[in-house]
Write a structure and sequence with these properties.
Elements: E1 10-12, E2 17-18, H1 19-27, H2 33-40, H3 52-64, H4 85-89
Antiparallel strand pairs: 1-2
């Protein structure tokens, strides 16, 4: 690990993505949050982006000079059809 303090600031706890990871991607020219999501898996952990996506949007806004309102958050995708929790836990068969 380097001495860069940005490596100690965790943006996505679910996938262990740091501030340095996000800023390096933005510095490389990628500023689309959906593309950053694909590269780092932010928003794909158990919290589904409740914490990290707003943080990443703020970092993009700060680094690009855009307003936070201009940063479009990724679409939330719900299951095509509801699945009972018992099926997910393996306690019952899906009908």
């Amino acid at each position: 690990m380097s001495d860069d303090p940005r490596e100690r600031i965790i943006i996505c706890r679910c996938n262990d993505v740091t501030l340095k990871d996000i800023e390096d991607i933005i510095d490389s020219g990628i500023t689309d949050i959906e593309e950053i999501k694909r590269l780092t898996r932010i928003g794909m952990g158990p919290c589904q982006g409740r914490t990290c996506l707003p943080l990443v949007a703020g970092i993009i806004a700060r680094k690009t000079g855009k307003k936070i309102e201009e940063i479009e958050l990724p679409a939330t995708r719900v299951p095509i059809r509801p699945v009972p929790m018992g099926v997910l836990a393996g306690d019952m068969d899906e009908e």
